[in-house]
Structure formats: C-alpha cells, structure tokens
Write a structure and sequence with these properties.
Elements (H helix, E strand, L loop, with lengths): L2 E8 L2 E8 L4 H12 L6 E5 L5 E2 L14 E9 L2 H5 L3 H18 L5 H19 L2 E2 L4 E2 L22 H14 L2 E3 L1 H6 L12 H14 L2 H4 L4 H13 L9 H17 L2 H4 L2 H13 L9 H6 L3 H5 L5 H13 L13 H16 L6 H11 L8 H16 L7 H25 L14 H23 L4 H55 L21 H10 L9 H12 L1
Parallel strand pairs: 1-5
Antiparallel strand pairs: 1-2, 3-4, 3-5, 5-8, 6-7
Length: about 575
C-alpha cells in the first residue's frame, strides 16, 4: 500500500511524517509524539490551516509543504518536582500517613472507618447493578408486575461498564498533573470551545483546570486529590444516553465557566457564588435516565413517586450530587465551614432545580422584574441571577459555532425520539415535540430559539452587556439560519404538493376522456366522434387536443402506451 506524507510544524520547526493508511492509530500518534519530543502521557493536538483541530489518525488528509499542519503539546507533565529532585509519590505517601496520625490524635474518625464505608458503598452498588446474585443464593425479580417494573427496562443498561470506567480512570491518573498551555486555557474560556475534539479523561483534566484558574482550590481550600476524586465520580454517574451525558455536563460547565470569566462575575458576585454555579453546572444532570419529567410522571416511575411529581429529575440530580459528596474522599465542600457549607448547599439546590424547564417562564419573569433596579447587595436578586445564569449555560448549544452545535441537535432529537417511541409502546401520552413523525430539526430549533432561548439570553445580556457579542449575537444568527432552513423546507413542501395536485388533475382529465371513449364504443359510434349532449349538434370533427388524446388513449390500439400505460405512469408520478 502506498504511503502518505504529512507536513507539519512543531514550535515553528518544519517536520514531516510518513506512514501507510493501514497503520494502527496508536502508531501514527507515536510518530507525531516522537517529532514533538513529547512524553507518553502528554496531550497532542493537530491544527489545520484554518485553525481547527483535526484527528491524528491514519486517515489524516495529505497536504503540501506550503500548507502544513500545526502540532502542539497542549498539556505536558510538569517536571518541576523532578528538576528540584523531589520524589512526589514519596511525599504524597508521607502526607497521607501524617493525615491519618493527625486524625487519630485529634480524636476525629479514623480513616479506616471511611475505608469501610467506601467498601459498603461499593457493595451496595454491586447489589443494585448485578442482575443475578447466585453468589448470595438470591436472584433479582425483574418480572412484569414487580416493583422494579416501574423503571424503564433499559434503565439498568445505562450505567458505564467497569471496563469503560477503568479505562478513563487510568488515563486521567496519567494526565491529571500535566500543565495545559496558555492557548488552551484561553480557548477554554470562550463559547467557541469545541467539546467534540476531547476525550472523557481529557475533559476531566479541563474541568480540574477551571477550578485551578478560578483559584477555588486555594481560596476555598479544596484539596486537589479530593477534587480529582469528585470529578471522576461525577463522570461515573452520568449515564450513556444520547444527550444528557457527561459531554453535556462538560459543555454546560464550560459555558458557565466562560460566562464567569467574560462577565467578571467573581467581582460582581464573589468566589462562593461562582463556585456554586460551576459545581451546579457539573452536577445538574447526574444519573439522567434519558427520559424527561413528563415521562416520569406519566409512567409513575420510582422517581416521580419519591418526589411527588415535583421536578423528579432535578431533585434526583441534586440528591445524587450530595450523595457523592458524602464520601470524604470526594467532598469538595468539607473545608468550607458551617456557614459557607449551608450557603453552598442551598445555592446548589436552587440552581439545579432551576433547570426544570417547567419553571422557565416563572424564573424568567421574576428576573425581568428585577432588571430596572437590580441590586448586587440583595441576596434575592443575586439568587435570581444565579438561576438565570445556569439556565443559559444549560441550553447554550446554539451560542456555539454551527459545526459544534448541530451534532448536539441530532443527539437531543435522538433522545426525544427514544422517549416518544417508548411512550407509544407503553400507551402513554406522547410529547408532540418529541414525535419523530412530526418533528424536524429546523422546525424544532426555530420555535425553541425564538420563544425560549433568545428571550432568556437577551434578559441576561441586559444586565451583563459584555456577553452580547459572545453568546447573544450567535444565537440571533442561529435563529436566522434555522428560519431560512424552515422557509426553504416549507417552499419545497409546497412545491411537491402542487406537483402532486397537478398530477391528480392530469389523471382526472385522462380518466374523463377515457370514459368518453368507452361510452362511444358502447353506443356503436366510431371512436373519432363525440357523443353529443342532449340538444347539441355533433359536427363529426375533433379538436387537435382531442385527436391527440384519442391517438394515445385508444383502447383498441396496439400501441404499448395505451390508456392503461398512461394511467399507470400518472399514478407513479403522483406518488
């Protein structure tokens, strides 16, 4: 097989790589890693001439020396400790031993208790996730009519597999101490950030960087190891559903992070408030089953029964978040102190509950009423701003570039269609905007942007005008794009309807003329004469149009394109 040559630059230095198209992807990446003199766990990104990230793989498009790719090491292992002669692993071990000794000496709960608690938690998860418990002499009853049948049958298959979790954890542990470049850190603060170019473990690293760059780890005394454990547990508890998955969690958190930077919200609100919004964004859809509140209520699921039909999903997301932080090794709130902890918990609860779209108009109208006299020293005003901010982040895909946002629409529609299919199967009321037989991409987006998204974004923009060029103008352009698409589709539909109607009229005329010929035959008249209507005088002649019809439609003709052929062709056209 022929080889391909790829030209690229690294740190301004021209390089070229040569490999065959059937090379394994890892081998191709190793070629570029060697050119960059990068370590095994450094993160490489390759950019084309337009500045877009492209995948380093055997299918990489060939280029010419005058249009080289640009290779960058966007995250490299920090070697400062090695340069200074420190053994980081040994220091961590010594610190862990010291922490245990302090806890025992101070009379606090020994770590062995927490370890036992973690083992119990793992055992509970195993009980819940393994269908067959023959090792205990027990078997789960998933038969129809059992209590567990309230949950959709596919709910048990949404969890990430042990293999998937282990793979992401191993990679995250290898890269969690790497240093991101300034370019990536700046890009991370913009709504134009492309999530599709990053793997799950890399997104965990980016989330960690958000806490570091906002200085939450120092100002709120969050231990880095605890933060890393928390982020991985969050990853574990997002299900493999088309839309409300870990990538969506990252996108919402990244947009929230961008808004904090772009609008200087740390200066306007304070560190704790911004921390609450970022953590709420990360946790806002934890353990989402892929079916909305309407389905939960109509299907009488366990969640709907537990929360009395009141925002069952949002209550569940919030509950799962605090269950994760009950584990000491994941509790990023443990060093806040009683007052700050209380405020953080209250803030996370009202922020996550605000993402229930059933409360959209209520929250938006309350916020609009505050805008003329908004007071940053008023806690009620600030709380409303926090609610609106996380709502904006939650539905912000249309503020992103089209090549980033459009795949998300496909994911959302797939999740919607899955739900409507299940509603039809179970005989439940069908959500009209989720029915695959009635919904198109353009029509769904036009109404949503015009009546839901844009009014919300513009209201936030009135208070925070710095956001106008970054998230509000792109949304207006998206509305224009989908409106034009809808008009084009409606015009195409109208044109097809006209063609269909014209075909029907043509078929009707041909059938009418054939009926006239049949009547002439029954009356013993020559086929080239008219049957006079009562009181009419027949001239025995035919118009040119009539002669044409008679010639092609004569039922006695041997012409293969007889009346039957014409009718058959017309039917095909009408379809």
């Amino acid at each position: 097989m022929a080889t391909k040559v790829i030209y690229f630059t690294i740190a301004g230095r021209p390089e070229q790589a040569e490999f065959r198209s059937d090379f394994p992807a890892d081998d191709v990446k190793d070629v570029f890693r060697a050119a960059a003199e990068a370590r095994q766990h450094d993160i490489l990104k390759l950019y084309n001439t337009r500045g877009n990230i492209v995948n380093i793989c055997p299918k990489l498009e060939e280029n010419t020396p005058d249009k080289p790719y640009k290779l960058e090491v966007v995250a490299a292992q920090c070697s400062l400790a090695e340069q200074l002669g420190f053994d980081v692993n040994e220091m961590e071990s010594r610190l862990e031993m010291l922490e245990k000794k302090v806890m025992v000496d101070s009379g606090e709960t020994p770590s062995v208790v927490y370890e036992l608690r973690n083992k119990v938690e793992d055992f509970r998860q195993k009980l819940e996730s393994v269908e067959h418990l023959s090792w205990l002499g027990l078997f789960k009853d998933f038969a129809v009519g059992s209590q567990s049948s309230n949950l959709p049958f596919y709910k048990r298959k949404l969890k990430k597999t042990d293999v998937e979790q282990r793979r992401v954890l191993e990679k995250f542990n290898k890269i969690k101490s790497v240093q991101l470049t300034d370019d990536v850190r700046e890009f991370l603060r913009l709504p134009t950030f492309d999530n599709w170019q990053w793997e799950d473990a890399e997104m965990l690293l980016l989330l960690q960087q958000m806490f570091i760059d906002l200085e939450f780890t120092t100002r709120l005394n969050i231990e880095l190891s605890v933060l890393q454990n928390f982020l991985f547990e969050v990853f574990r508890h997002y299900n493999n559903v088309p839309f409300h998955n870990f990538k969506h969690c990252f996108c919402v958190a990244q947009m929230m992070y961008g808004i904090i930077w772009l609008a200087d919200m740390q200066e306007l609100l304070g560190d704790l408030e911004c921390f609450i919004m970022l953590v709420s964004a990360i946790c806002h859809d934890l353990d989402h089953p892929g079916y909305n509140n309407s389905y939960q209520v109509n299907a009488k699921t366990e969640l709907a029964l537990r929360y009395n039909d009141i925002s069952p999903l949002e209550n569940h997301h919030c509950s799962v978040a605090f269950q994760l932080m009950e584990k000491p090794h994941c509790n990023i709130l443990k060093n806040l102190g009683p007052e700050k902890y209380k405020k953080a918990r209250e803030g996370m609860i009202f922020c996550i509950l605000a993402t229930d779209m059933a409360k959209h108009n209520e929250i938006l109208n309350q916020f609009k009423s505050l805008l003329p006299n908004f007071d940053y020293s008023n806690s009620d005003h600030v709380n409303q701003l926090m609610k609106v901010s996380i709502k904006v982040a939650d539905i912000s895909n249309e503020a992103r570039p089209m090549d980033v946002s459009e795949p998300w629409i496909d994911c959302l529609l797939q999740e919607f269609f899955n739900q409507s299919d299940m509603e039809k199967l179970e005989g439940l009321p069908i959500s009209p905007f989720m029915d695959r037989e009635k919904v198109s991409k353009s029509s769904s987006q036009t109404g949503f942007i015009q009546f839901v998204l844009l009014p919300l974004f513009e209201s936030l923009g009135q208070l925070l005008p710095k956001l106008e060029p970054h998230i509000i103008m792109p949304v207006r352009k998206a509305l224009e794009y989908y409106s034009d698409m809808t008009k084009a589709m409606e015009e195409e539909k109208r044109r097809k309807e006209e063609q269909k109607q014209n075909s029907k009229e043509e078929l009707k005329n041909i059938t009418k003329e054939n009926g006239t010929l049949s009547l002439q035959k029954q009356n013993g008249q020559p086929p080239n004469t008219r049957v006079p209507s009562p009181g009419a005088i027949s001239t025995g002649s035919n118009s040119a149009k009539e002669r044409k019809i008679l010639k092609s439609g004569n039922p006695h003709s041997n012409n293969p394109h007889s009346n039957q052929s014409i009718v058959g062709k017309t039917n095909i056209k009408a379809k």
